[in-house]
Write a structure and sequence with these properties.
By secondary structure, the chain is of the alpha/beta class. It has 2 domains: 183 residues, Rossmann fold; 103 residues, no CATH class. The protein contains 15 helices and 11 strands. The strands form 4 sheets. The protein has a 5-stranded parallel beta sheet with strand order 2-5-8-1-9, sandwiched between helices. A two-stranded antiparallel sheet has the order 3-4. Strands 6-7 form a two-stranded antiparallel ribbon. A hairpin with a 4-residue loop joins strand 6 and strand 7. Helix 11 crosses helix 12 and helix 11 packs parallel to helix 13.
């Protein structure tokens, strides 16, 4: 490995709004140094998408986001040939329709390839697309180029983008695709790391309120019957609601107010209400995880 690439390994250290673990920091920097896509997995709310934003911010680079849907095709990220507009122009005499290049519109990956400066390219939630989608991008992500048959030109990356790919593990990705990526799984933050994350967003939050909210938050996450566990983003919203309401700290663990901010499924709300009713006559009891239900 060259000395220049060795220097790259210490580039990314998080950002002003994104707390990064040492393991994730190393994964980002190794991917940058080896010029390979970084595939990020983790449960919703662990900051997969925000990672790309943090990398772009810390390295002072433009961020290009390609949001993947179930209907997205790989070629859409490269280019689209607007045949409808060309047909319209041919019928109504608007311009020279023989110049096909006018009707070629670059997609997000095409934009990243043609950028004069290196960009951060986020391919967000790749597992939402069909099974062939990752395989259809193997050549482009490996060779950093693609061919446009309509104009007989090849688009090569002027500056190799830093590629971040996220997945919620809804589908298994092909082995051939995985071999070309650096992989990292973002674990859900423990209480200590979560407090660090919270204080980045709310540096002046009252300690007693935070402690009570964290106790209730992790208690809910540890309930085995909760189907959609609250994530970091829900905790941040809940803390804001608690702060704005001026609610007594003592009521946070006894009542868990504004529960709809944390939980988004009827079954999960029913689970909490059921547990509360069964625990109602206890005093200071703990569940198996050590979180107290007062």
């Amino acid at each position: 490995m060259s000395k220049n690439k060795m220097k790259d390994i210490s580039n990314f250290k998080g950002s002003s709004s994104y707390v990064v673990s040492r393991e994730l920091m190393n994964s980002v920097n190794v991917a940058v140094a080896l010029q390979k896509p970084l595939l990020i997995k983790g449960e919703p709310g662990t900051g997969k998408t925000m990672l790309a934003e943090a990398i772009a911010e810390s390295m002072d680079k433009e961020l290009i986001i390609w949001n993947i849907k179930s209907t997205t095709k790989a070629q859409e990220g490269l280019y689209v040939y607007d045949t409808v507009q060309r047909l319209y122009d041919s019928q109504f005499g608007e311009g020279d329709v023989s110049d096909i290049k006018k009707y070629i519109k670059l997609g997000k990956l095409g934009e990243a390839f043609t950028s004069e400066k290196q960009v951060v390219m986020l391919i967000d939630e790749i597992d939402k697309a069909d099974l062939e989608f990752p395989n259809d991008l193997l050549w482009e992500l490996d060779k950093m180029e693609f061919h446009i048959p309509e104009t007989k030109e090849t688009i090569s990356a002027k500056q190799r983008p830093i590629v971040i790919i996220t997945s919620n593990a809804e589908k298994e990705l092909p082995d051939a695709f995985l071999r070309r990526c650096i992989f990292h799984y973002i674990e859900f933050p423990d209480a200590e790391k979560m407090e660090e994350i919270v204080r980045v967003h709310y540096p002046d939050i009252e300690s007693k309120l935070l402690a009570a909210a964290m106790e209730a938050f992790y208690w809910i996450r540890d309930l085995k019957d909760v189907q959609k566990k609250p994530s970091t983003s829900e905790l941040l919203d809940w803390l804001q609601a608690l702060t704005l309401s001026g609610i007594s700290v003592d009521r946070i663990t006894t009542e868990i107010p504004f529960l709809g901010v944390l939980l988004k499924k009827n079954q999960d709300l029913d689970t909490i209400f059921d547990v509360k009713s069964r625990k109602g006559n206890t005093n200071g009891s703990y569940n198996n995880s050590g979180y107290r239900w007062r």
